[in-house]
Write a structure and sequence with these properties.
alpha+beta, elongated, four-stranded antiparallel β-sheet, single chain, about 10% strand
Length: about 170
């Protein structure tokens, strides 16, 4: 491993510019590897678990780049975390109880145009948050909403009321 330490420099922050650049290249490729192992959803639709993993991976890579943490040990621990995340994600596909524990369950915020104030309060959703979610779904008025749900990933999804069919002219 002395060849690696020669390329990346010491872990005390005193690496040369070339060694920091080598760290950047290695960590860039390592980041791509982590994304490929963890799966695209880890860094796109962030659930609470996905967000924690993304933050820790980013923090670890940052510390490894600046030499504030041992390079190889930090990469090994980060890889273990990413693999563990992937295994938990795969297990939640097969186990409903584990999925409920890790991801939670969706919460109905509006049913047939009526706001469920208790659900909104329980999940920390303000009326302004709900209205923003409605705008994102191009819904202008609460009376157009058949169902509004805060999904497990935190996004508010809206199902419009069906409009009655127009009689033929």
């Amino acid at each position: 491993m002395t060849w690696l330490h020669h390329i990346i420099g010491p872990d005390d922050g005193s690496a040369t510019i070339a060694q920091f650049c080598a760290r950047a290249v290695i960590l860039f490729l390592y980041g791509i590897l982590c994304i490929r192992i963890a799966g695209r959803r880890t860094f796109s639709n962030l659930s609470a678990l996905d967000l924690i993993v993304a933050l820790v991976v980013g923090s670890n890579i940052s510390r490894a780049m600046t030499g504030k943490a041992p390079f190889v040990g930090t990469l090994a621990a980060t890889l273990v975390l990413v693999i563990l995340h992937r295994l938990v994600a795969l297990a939640t596909v097969r186990s409903n109880w584990l999925a409920l524990f890790v991801k939670g369950r969706p919460a109905v915020l509006v049913r047939d145009g009526e706001i469920d104030g208790k659900a909104m309060l329980r999940h920390g959703i303000s009326k302004e948050d709900l209205i923003e979610g409605m705008r994102m779904e191009q819904v202008a008025h609460l009376n157009e909403v058949a169902l509004a749900t805060m999904e497990r990933g935190g996004k508010i999804s809206i199902i419009r009321k069906t409009r009655p069919a127009r009689p033929p002219v």
